[in-house]
Amino acid sequence: MNTRPRLAALPKGQRGQALVFVSVTMIVVLLAMLVMYSVGQLTTQRMKLQNTADAVAYSVSLTQARDLNFSAYMNRAMVANQVAVAQIVSMTGWARNFNDTYNGSFSSIARTLANFSALSALWTVPANIYQSIGSGLKNVFDSVGPIMVKVLDVIIDALHFSSLGYHYGMAVTIPQTIDGVLKANDPNASLSTLGYVGAGVGVVQHLLFAKSYDPTTNKDGDRRFANVTDASSDLFYKNRTLPLTFWPTPMLIDPIRLFTPGVGPLVMFNFHSGGSVLRTDSGKELKAWGSADASGTFVIFCITISILGIPIPIPFPLPPLPAGSGGAAAGDFNSSSVLMTGSTLGHRNAENTGVDSAAAVDFGGAYLNPYTAIPYFIQVGKGPGTNMDSRAGLRSYLDIKGNATNSTSNQANNNSSNNNQNVKAPAFFIEVERASNSVATTSSPTFRIGGGGGGQLDLEDSAVGGKLKAMAKGEAYFSRPTGLFARGDGKTEYGSLYSPYWQAHLAPNSLLEQAASMLGANVLP
To answer: Mean pLDDT over all residues of the chain?
Structure first.
């Protein structure tokens, strides 16, 4: 007899329900996981693409800032060498004047007057020393000076062409920078069509941002480089007319003459005037460095007579006596015209103010001083001597377009026209893209769940045009850090190619750029 217990029958209508539920749930969970995976992959790659775009935009603007700073360094070097040329011309003219004063045709007049004094050694001893020194100085500067000027002018040319080559070389450097940064950050990314257009426009704008100015034509009203050069020169170049400064002179003071009957000098010394200018000559602007120095002898003569045994001195100044002169010049000039008065350099009066205001007078006012006017015009008649370098003078240089003009009207309109207030260079708009199927999502060829490429588990990424895109913008800007390199005058310094304070940063994209990117995603290939 079968005593095994009988199993209870399953409830009617509930067979196989758990298996269906589990299967459906597993499919939903799997689809959710695949969606999360695809979204995560696309989001990660989108962020990486944005970082790549930012890196490209920043690197390009940094390259731009380096170019502007390089031009600034080249301009500063050109100014320094121009100042050196001016100093050599000045020292050559000064040495020639020094030699002519103690070795020239007028030196015998001073010696003759000094010999009337019992203390004539006060004049003749130092005059003999200066005579030897003057001859040596003149020979040195006559021999070495022209060579040094020619070498400096070659260096100035090299600096200018280096600046030009580096600037226009940006047309090649910027594409190379873009390609290098793209490969380093995302080998699968490239510029979009709009990105190529933006980069190309940026390169053109950058090349046009800086302009080559030729100060020898004055067609652009240029004076900026001349102003900087003149302001960088010291007082020896600008004005050597200061009492006993830059000029050793014998000093004869004879108090004996006041008490002893006779005739002779009471006071006697040489007065010196001189200076240098950068002037216009031969119809070309700022192409001639000219130096003129002149010296005259100041004498108070004294006739002492004795009346009843009492000496009665009668001092009286002699008319201005010429002592010597000297000149030098380098550049494109005609004969003695480079030493004539009436310089056309309007920047001197504008730039030299305050303690340096005396430098606004050409040649230290040697033609105005009664003691040096005669020897000055004698030197004008003789001319400045052999041209130290016919190629001397200011050269072309790069500066920000619109920065060179220095007229009063333009300065008055600074607030409205933004002239001379450049603080930002042209921005670079960058857009990069990457094919969406290069990202490992469920719809990419590299993902093979459900057959891939149209399988049952494929989920389309819905990327417009099948591409991921990201845009960015970078720009170079000028900012002088006041905490480290504050200006002595406390003024705000605007962007120029004289100070190397150009930096780079990212800038927000405008609504127009965003709209162009959205439109391009639907229209451009």
So the answer is: 81
